[in-house]
Write a structure and sequence with these properties.
Helices cover about 35% and strands about 20% of the residues. The longest helix is centred in the first third of the chain and has 17 residues, at about 175-195. It contains 22 helices and 22 strands.
């Protein structure tokens, strides 16, 4: 097939940057192809999209060398308007591309700029909103949407323009698991209906996407092209490099690598549950094992108490009188627990957690922190007890340098300078932020911003940590570094409360989980019981784990009927010893 995009020796360096964001990158994308971009945080994936769309250098200053051809035309002589009509881009941060007040006006904005006739515009808006599940919210204000709903709106705005190329920069990062699956199904349907549509996608969670991808392009740190090829071939040939770079793999692929490294023969590295079933069937030593503790039960802290770190009693809340977000919610988060909150987009998860740090203020006698009614505590007393990491990291930055941001709260508390410097250096190193210590926090990549936002809270030492999507935008290494920190704090008695859509993260780390659906608590209890309840998973817009589907396909289970949920739990079924590390 003919080439839709040709990139020749592309190099990009931002002003005052220590190194290039992309270096001498060359590749082609054929018409109708789906290309997956993989690479660690900061490897230039988003920069590549900004170059293709023309925003670099037209709107974002950078030194650019090399050539980009679109359908054989030199993109450098095309206007931004021409480029944007060819390429629909969904940014990593959806808020960065919104211009209008309401949902339908936001979708209409791009069409108006393309001079689409009014007679055609309404049908396009309705179709695009229907495709992303926002058809019931055309008049909703954009700022009142959840972050996941904003991501859908950004996609609808791109789809309505009917571009020939879609560049999707982590488009499902804020979607719940079922919405993510439906989004990938939507991409599959788009490809069937529009065979010439070319899709370039940056994505970390690959389990439901990988079987629709034609090729993978792997970028190394520093924006260097490392490999291009079919997914199975790249995962197989570049396994060690993928591990070194911390690239997320489909769960069955990660398990296959672990099994192969242990010496068991695999004819190929599986990328889907169906392939894994075929490859693993003859290698299993056990189909059933005695019931045992969940892999995330890393040991109850010696300081754990029976009392609640956070107690919510019959809490109701709405941002306006005619629309309640939370309905009579009651929830107990035990002191010293590792607790997860899950649920569909817009179910009220962030609204509930915002009451724990009085970002949203409840009426008296509804929210208690370490036994005290939060409305009786001063702001200083609350922040001494609760560290809150926002869903959008930019909402908490206050300093001009990364290292100053890390030390801001410590300086407010009057810590000695020598102590602060030691804490700051250790966190910078742990979270891979040392090269950026003098950078402005707002100039970091989304993944780097997330790491900084989490590190700032870990520096203070509160007894309760509330983290909203803590691993969003992280590669495997940085996510593991973060979760290792949280596990260590948990062992020391800190209560860790995470809001996440990452079901594998919950399976690997959480002790207990609560589920919100439409502002009501539908489940509170152990993780395995939730993940084995397929009816509740469907109701809560959660997807069955790939490992659960694999277990059912291979007829593998524990004696109590539950399924292994992590790589660590799967290894004994192959006759291999469990490893200490929980996250692959």
């Amino acid at each position: 097939m003919s080439s839709r995009i040709e990139v020749h020796n592309l190099s990009v360096r931002y002003p005052r940057a220590l190194r290039s964001a992309l270096q001498d990158v060359s590749f082609t994308v054929t018409r109708g192809e789906m290309l997956l971009l993989l690479g660690p945080s900061g490897s230039g994936k988003s920069t590549l999209g900004l170059c293709l769309s023309g925003l670099i250098p037209a709107s974002i200053p950078a030194r650019v060398e090399g050539r980009i051809l679109m359908d054989g035309r030199d993109a450098s002589v095309m206007s931004v308007a021409q480029r944007s009509s060819e390429i629909g881009m969904v940014f990593q941060d959806p808020e960065a591309q919104f211009c209008m007040l309401t949902v339908q006006d936001e979708v209409a904005f791009g069409l108006e700029n393309l001079a689409v006739p009014r007679s055609e515009m309404d049908a396009r808006i309705a179709q695009a909103l229907g495709m992303v599940g926002l058809s019931d919210r055309p008049g909703e204000r954009v700022d009142r949407l959840s972050r996941g709903q904003k991501q859908r709106l950004a996609l609808a705005s791109a789809l309505a323009r009917r571009p020939s190329v879609l560049f999707l920069d982590e488009p499902t990062a804020n979607l719940d698991p079922n919405a993510r699956y439906e989004f990938f199904q939507l991409l599959g349907a788009l490809r069937r209906d529009e065979p010439d549509l070319t899709i370039i996608i940056v994505e970390h969670i690959l389990d439901d996407l990988i079987d629709t991808v034609d090729r993978v392009l792997l970028l190394r740190p520093g924006g260097l092209l490392h490999a291009v090829g079919k997914p199975g071939e790249v995962f197989d040939r570049q396994g060690e490099e993928l591990d070194r770079m911390g690239i997320w793999l489909p769960q069955v692929t990660a398990l296959g690598r672990r099994v192969r490294l242990a010496g068991l023969p695999l004819s190929r590295l599986p990328i889907t549950v169906e392939q894994a079933t075929s490859e693993f069937d003859s290698l299993l030593i056990h189909r059933s094992l005695p019931a045992h503790g969940h892999s995330s039960d890393t040991g109850t802290s010696s300081t754990e108490k029976a009392s609640a770190a956070i107690s919510v009693r019959n809490l109701s809340f709405g941002y306006r009188p005619d629309r309640e977000v939370l309905h009579d919610v009651s929830l107990e988060v035990p002191s010293g627990s590792f607790f997860a909150l899950m649920g569909p987009n817009g179910s009220g998860k962030t609204s509930l957690a915002s009451h724990f740090a009085e970002i949203l203020t409840p009426t008296p006698a509804h929210v208690y922190v370490l036994g005290d009614d939060i409305t009786t505590l001063t702001t200083a007393e609350i922040t001494e007890r609760v560290g809150y990491v926002f869903q959008n990291p930019e909402h908490q930055f206050v300093e001009q340098r990364v290292d100053d941001e890390l030390l801001y709260s410590l300086r407010l508390r009057g810590r000695p300078e020598e102590e602060m410097e030691a804490i700051g250096d250790e966190l910078l190193d742990s979270f891979g932020l040392t090269p950026y210590r003098t950078r402005n926090p707002f100039s970091l990549s989304q993944g780097e911003k997330r790491r900084l936002s989490v590190a700032t809270m870990l520096s203070v030492g509160q007894r309760i940590l509330v983290l909203d999507e803590p691993t969003f935008g992280q590669d495997r290494h940085t996510a593991h570094a973060l979760m290792t920190h949280l596990q260590a704090l948990h062992r020391d008695g800190v209560t860790v409360f995470i809001i996440t859509h990452d079901m594998q993260l919950v399976a690997d780390y959480a002790q207990s989980v609560a589920v919100l659906v439409s502002g009501r608590v539908r489940y509170v209890g152990p993780v395995p019981a939730l993940f084995d309840d397929r009816t509740l998973l469907d109701e809560a817009s959660l997807r069955e784990l790939s490992f659960h589907r694999l277990a059912r396909s291979l007829q593998v289970s524990y004696a109590d009927g539950s399924a292994p949920m992590s790589i660590r739990e799967w290894l004994p079924f192959f006759g291999l010893a469990q490893e200490e590390q929980t996250r692959p």
